[in-house]
Each structure stands twice: as C-alpha cells, then as structure tokens.
Amino acid sequence: MGADLERVLLTEDRILARIDDLAQQIWADYEGKDVLLVGVLKGAVMVMSDLMRAMPGTAPMDWMAISSYGSGTKSSGVVRILKDLDSDISGRHVLIVEDIVDSGLTLSWLRSNLASRGAASVEICALMRKPDASKVDVDVRYVGFDIPNEFVVGYGLDYAERYRNLRDVVTLAPHVYT
Ligand code: IMP
User: Fold this and answer.
1) From the alpha carbon of 74, which atom of ligand 1 is closest?
2) Is the CB of 43 under 6 A from ligand 1?
3) Most distant CA atoms of the chain, gap in Å
4) Residues β-bridged to residue 64
5) Which of 70, 86, 145, 162 is the most exposed place for a label (fewest CB within 10 A)?
6) 108-146, pLDDT tens digit by residue?
7) Looking at residue 100, what DSSP letter applies?
C-alpha cells in the first residue's frame, strides 16, 4: 500500500456480501412498486452497478451530479446541480443510491429536492455512514456499514479524483488531507 493509504477498512468480498443483503431487502420492500434507482455521480457508480446486479429483477436507474461547496474534505450543504435527472419522478418511488453519508447535508438537500418534484416516496441507500451523520436528521433507510470518522477512498470514492478504482475501501492517511 502506498504511503498515502493507511489500511483496508472494507474488503471487496465484505462489500459485495453486504450489497447482496441490501439488494434482497430492497427488492422485498419495493415488491409491486415501480422503484427508480437514482445514483449520485461519481462516487456511487460502483455501489449502483453492484446493487442493481444483485437484485433479483430489473429496476431502472437514473443519475444526478451535484457539487457540494466546501473546503477540503468537508461539505457545506450548499449544493448545485451539475447534471439533473433524465426522468420525471412525479408519482414514482425513488431510491437514492449513495456512496457515503458524512455530515448528511448533501443527502438531506437531495432528498427534499426530489420530494419537491412530487415523488411518491424518497428513500436512501448508502454504502457507508460516518458518525457525524447523526447530527443532521437524515433518515438513511439502507446502510451498508457504519464506519469511523476517517477519510476513505476506493470502490468509487476518491480523493482529488484518485483511488476510485481500488476494489477495497481504504483509509487515507491524515497527512494527505489535513
Ligand atoms: P456530506 O454532505 O457531508 O454527507 O458529504 C457527502 C459527500 O462527501 C459524499 O457523497 C462524498 O462525495 C463526500 N465524502 C464524504 N466523506 C468522504 C470520504 O471519506 N471519502 C470520500 N468522499 C467522502
């Protein structure tokens, strides 16, 4: 492992096993409902592709790209849409697929934005949740792993666009971002 990477937090095998559980649970919860999976670019690309392939049937997907203003590794909750959905979500059940919830500000903004478009329901599935997420009242229905308050990369998550390709989730050495 390079000097900037510290330790493996979640192995690919563990991630895939957990995503498999979540996919079964989601499929059962949405039985008989038309659910639209909404991925948040770019961090959620791996979660989305593994989650949808683990589902017993087909669910359509769409993507949003948002930028959360912030400094360094912290978001501010002030969000700008860089790419909007292709689909009209009014009356539809939306499941946001996200990589990680940290402060929860990004997701709480996104959830109310999608709800204001008349979605029948908006729920969240996040692979990881950090302890700070409890400070904002954002209800994440499907959580893969509760992780410590460290900056992580890999499995789609980046630091300055690097490390998204790692198969495991790895902690970044604090000297890189502090
Ligand atoms: P929040 O608004 O503080 O919850 O920030 C959520 C967003 O910040 C995520 O979608 C990620 O893009 C980014 N983020 C938060 N923590 C990490 C991390 O540990 N590694 C990589 N990106 C992170």
Assistant:
1) 3
2) yes
3) 49
4) 40
5) 86
6) 999 999 999 999 999 999 999 998 877 777 899 999 999
7) E
